[in-house]
Structures are given as C-alpha cells and as structure tokens.
Amino acid sequence: MVFDLDADKYLSEILFLFELVSESNTTVSSLLAWGFLRPMSRTGVKHIGKKLQLQLYKTPARRLFGNATPRPTISDLFNWFNSVQKEKYPATLYVTLLSSGSSKSSTVTKESRFSVTSPLRGGRLSGQPFKLPTRRGFTYESAAAGALIACYRSDGSSLAFALSTGDIMVYQNSVISLHLKGHQGNVYDLEWNKNEGGEGWRLLSCGADCTARVWNDSNDVVLPHPAYVYSARFGESDARVVTGCFDQLIRLWELNSSSPRLISTYVQHRAPINSLCWDSHGRLFSGDAKGSICVWNSTISGLHFEKILNESSEEYRNETPINCLYSHPSGGRLLVHYRGSKMCLLEPKSGLKLISYSGIYNPRLRLASSISPCGGYVISGSEDGSVHWFDLERGDLVAVTTLATSTIDPVMAVAFHPTCHAIALCSLSSECCLSVLEFNAADTGIEGAKRRFHDREHFKE
To answer: Name one GO cellular component term (predicted).
Structure first.
C-alpha cells in the first residue's frame, strides 16, 4: 500500500493495524489474527527501510462465537492495541516500510518538466498501410532494468516507457526529456490522456506497488489499491480512470476534484484482472487470469456489466490466462492475447473467433501485443527475443524481427507510432531495453536487427 503523506512530519503520529483474514469459497470471511506497527518507536527509532518481523495476536474470544458476529471495526482494533492482555498468535508478519520521496525527478524543474511539440511531419499518411521498419532509430540501455511497457501520445510527439525499477521515461525530440520517479517495482501499464486540447497532458500508470498514478504538469495523483494493479485506462473522458487489480475488482475513479474519489467497485471476475480495453463504441472489455472476457457499458452513473464475451471458447473452459486485449482501430474486432502462445481476433458482439495467430513463444510471461494504426498488422513480442508480424486479415506470419544482442531476452511489449512508420519494442535486455525501429526507403535491411520474411509456404531472406 502507498500512503500519500509527509513521512517526516507525521511519522511519530502514525499507527498501522493489520488483520489476518481467512477467505473461504463463500462470501463469509473470518478474522484469524491481528497486529500493529509503529513507524517510529517510543524511543524515537525510525523503522523506515528495514524488514520488520511483527508478532501477530489472537482475536479476543468474544469475536469467535456466532456466525452473525460482525467484522471488527477500527475502534475494536484500537481497543485491542491498548489492552494489556494480548495473546500471541503462532505466526509473524514481515513488513517493510519505504519512503519514496518526491514523485518528481530532482533533475527536472517544473517549468521544463514537459513541453508538447508538433507531431512529426512527413511520416505515414492517413489511411496509408504501415511499412515494416528498416533501421533502429533509438536505443535505451539500462544495466539494472528492462522495459516492460511503452505508449505513444496520440499525436506521436512523445513516447513513454516504464522500467522494471519503477522509473518512467519520456522520449521526445530525440532525447529523454522527462524522468518520472514514484513507483516502487514493476510498472505494468501506461496510457496518455486523449483530451490533448483540454487541460494539458496526463500520463496514467499502474504497477506492483499497489498504486495507479496520474502524472501531469502540476499535481500528480496517487490511486491506492490493496494489491497489484495490472491495468489502468482513462475513461471516456480524462476526468475518470478505470483500474483492474489482482484482487479481482474493477475500480472507477473520479479525478475532477481536489482529491481523487473512488466512485465504485465492480465484482464480476473470478481471477486477477490482467487487461482493460475500450473500443471506439464506448464499451469496456476486461480480461482476467482465468480466461474470462467481460463486456461493460459505460454511463454517467458508472459501469454496467453486459455479458461474458467468450464463454463458448476453449480458452475460457481451460481457464487460459489472458495477457492483453487490444481493440481494432475501427472498433469492429478485438485482439485477445492468451498465455501459452495463443492469439486470436474476436467479433466483439458475438464473441465469435474470426482468425487465430500462431508462432510466438509465450509460456510464462505477461506479454502485450498490438494492432498497427492502419489495421493491417498484428504484432507481438516473444519470450525467445523475437518480434512476429502477422497479416491481420489472413492470419499469416509475414515477418520475424530479432534484435542483435548478445543474450536472448523476452520482448515484453510493442507500441506503434500513430503517425509514422515506426514502432517501439520493450525488452528485458540490458543492451537495448527500449528500441525504436523506423522505416527508411533507402535501407536494404535493418541496422542492429535481423528480419526474416515469410510467405505461405517458405522463408524468404
């Protein structure tokens, strides 16, 4: 959990109270034990940056009788804490407290933190088919981390990518123009706001530190969760955010206030939610770790569950985890990337499987595939370090691109430039954790990478 407060100012006044709860298959849960933690001891010793072993205590006997006994309140826990009679529970809890400091990089001033430039000119024309890249235009190296996810602004002016350390970098005008610090650990998802003519830029992120964050020019916003947050999307307006969490709940947040407000939580999934995706018709699709795809309608009052889209599929019956969902630019089809090297295109109303794509190697990791802005290609990374290009309509494998590195590292995610013939690749390789590949008509191959072309029957070099 992340708490947005001044640790130095309030450290001596804070008390953390913990509950150890047993969850059953029913809606009934029982409290097994409880515990507490003072961030600063009575003698003034700070417990920041240390791994602490906390003694747990048994629930007072009066709470163990009767099925109708309500869950303890904060007042109950505080009374137990103040009681001199505490019976030890035969277990301990390990806790680490960290102070994250300012969410803004100390090397970037507020005035120079971010500047929006005009979109790149002379790139891909509207409606023009995407051309496969021929050269590596930019590479970011990081000895300590790989890149997990990347996202272009809709005008193509900036590229945000996240490292496994929790750092978020913004690439603009051929340089790293912004370094965002705040997340602790993996960042699983990124999205730029769509209302670029409105109140300015916003960047949405979420990660393993149990938070989603909205970054902007002035006040960054933290949305706390009880578990990992695997996916986050702006709503139909930038004033709302939807998050998908490991605790199987979808949350809807309101940002138009002095502080963020949780509008509602939605219980429909039976497994951690791995991916969220809007289509052009305003429907929200959510996919989970047991292969279920839920369809939601959005109104002013919130989200309304419509149906499970893929109940008749083999992947749903086998509870195959969903890595990611991606809507076709036209909104008429939905790309579903299952764990275990399975990708397919669904009709978003009936759930009918239209086309399947095979060839990638993905037995273990949560990879993110994509569809080209022209709607002609499906592209996905692979755990063997390659990138696979498929013809979206036929399902044929068109080409395989492999980065020239000394080790074989998974390509975790891909992101198409919206207005140019360019694509960003996120890899766990320290040599090129982020690579931007570009098309140039004068090139005969890819500098710094290998590519094999495929037809229906054999390879072509």
So the answer is: ciliary basal body
